[in-house]
Amino acid sequence: MAAAESYPEELKYHEEHDWARVDGDEAVLGITWFAADLLGELVHFEPPAVGSDVTKDQSYGEVESVKAVSDVIAPLSGEVLAVNEQVVDAPETVNEDPYGNGWLIRIRLGDPGETDDLLDAAAYRQVLANQ
Description:
Elements: E1 12-14, E2 18-23, E3 26-31, H1 33-39, E4 42-46, E5 53-54, E6 59-65, E7 69-73, E8 78-83, H2 85-89, H3 93-96, E9 105-109, H4 121-129
Antiparallel strand pairs: 1-2, 2-3, 3-9, 4-6, 5-8, 6-7, 8-9
């Protein structure tokens, strides 16, 4: 069952429909409810390797749905510390819980200042309203 539309206030957002939950020098990354809803039911997640680097505004993996294959864009740069194996095994978890069990990767921030470039929930909602 798909999650209800939401954009948690404690997260930071990228205009490419990705989110970051920053905690100290680490961040958990995922795709927003909007992205998951637009794609439809996810059937595959191609993650980066643990230990690899992701770069802000660049693709770090792919999600595939019954409709399309889409790049996942990194909202922040850093080293991949963990991949959510639950999503690798059951990609539909993203549709069910995009901000909880549906997270994609955890990184160690390469440049904590990059978080200043991300949107808060209100600004992200404005991006959606303008689409």
